[in-house]
Amino acid sequence: MDPTQQKAINALESFIVLSKSATSPRSAADLVNQATSAPNTYVFAELLQTPNVAALKTASREHASYYTLLEIFAWGTWADYTSTPDLPQLSEPQAHKLRQLTLLSLAGRPSPSHLTYPHLLTALSLPTTRALEDLVISTIYAGLLTAKLSPQTQRVDVSSVSPLRDLRPGSISTLTSTLEAWEARCVSVLEELEGQVGEVKQKALERRKREVRDEAAVASLLEEARKEGVGMRFMDEKGKAVGKREVGAVVGDENDEMDLDGGMGKSRGAKRGGSGGGIKGAAKRMMG
Q1: What is the sign, positive or negative, of the torsion defined by CA atoms of 121, 125, 131, 136?
Q2: Higher-confidence residue: 264 or 196?
Q3: For residue range 168-184, what is the model confidence (pLDDT) as tens digits?
Q4: What digits encode the pLDDT tens for the residues 231-275?
Q5: Per the confidence metrics, is the pTM higher than 0.70?
Q6: Higher pLDDT, 251 or 29
């Protein structure tokens, strides 16, 4: 449970106990005045349900107005108070608290237009911007809401609201409809996100397939280029492929050229003619 809500419930407990002894309409009306003026009391549904306070509904018009006043503190607003005739005059603590509770109700609505300075000044019957800012600051320090004042944009930017307003009778169906609409929006957003994730995965898969195809194509081209590079060594000067014997001749000529480069100007054939070179030299030594 929210700490501020728990604190408000604890603050109301003493008045619920006192209601048992408020057996007359006058004492029950006085109890309503005390409960709505006391610090930290912001929830009143349980007090409305106590027998002696509930009996005010059928009491005289003077005392029945206190029950209506308590209902406004439970789930109503400042506009409800000013538009309802014959209600008791509010003390300064009561007026301040009802304005705070009204601010909570306005902050909990989805439309941000309810939190502009001009709208709040009218809704709370406050004379100046300074009075409005003082009310908002006191509400923040009481832990009833988390908000920031924005004098430049003439707005109150609310980030969280404590769950302190009681539910008006018959509002469960409206609340249920609101929650169902919210659930439908969440489901729609999730489905859209899942679709986008699926598209991203599909695009990634297709990109990977293209990369694999490109890599295979590059590897094939490299293999063909390697084979063509080796084959070029076994082609004649006119670009005509040669047979195995011609290949041997080509290789032999290449070896002769290598010996010429490494033999200090002497050809390999000259070396074979020497006493220790080549197969013919070896045969002569054997015969000699």
Answers
A1: negative
A2: 196
A3: 877 677 778 878 888 88
A4: 555 454 554 544 444 444 444 454 444 444 444 444 444 444 444
A5: no
A6: 29
3-state SS of the chain is CCHHHHHHHHHHHHHHHHHCCCCCHHHHHHHHHHHHHCCCCCCCHHHHHCHHHHHHHHCCHHHHHHHHHHHHHHHCCHHHHHHCCCCCCCCHHHHHHHHHHHHHHHHCCCCHHHHEHHHHHHHCCCCCHHHHHHHHHHHHHCCCEEEEEECCCCEEEEEEECCCCCCCCCCHHHHHHHHHHHHHHHHHHHHHHHHHHHHHHHHHHHHHHHHHHHHHHHHHHHHHHHHHHHHHHHECCCCCECCHHHHHHHHHHHHHHHHHHHCCCCCHHHHHCCCCCHHHHHHHHHHC
Give the pLDDT band of residue 230 (cuts 50, 70, 90). Answer: low
Beta bridge partners of 148: 157
pLDDT by residue (tens digit) across 197-226? 999 999 999 999 999 999 998 888 888 888
Phi, psi of 167 (to 5 degrees): -80, 130
Q: Which residues contact 250 (CB under 8 A, 6 or more apart)?
A: 233, 234, 242
Beta bridge partners of 156: 149
Of the candidates 93, 212, 111, the residue with the CA atom closest to the CA atom of residue 155: 111
One-letter identity of residue 203: K
Question: What is the C-alpha to C-alpha distance for residues 116 and 114, in angstroms, rounded to an integer?
Answer: 6
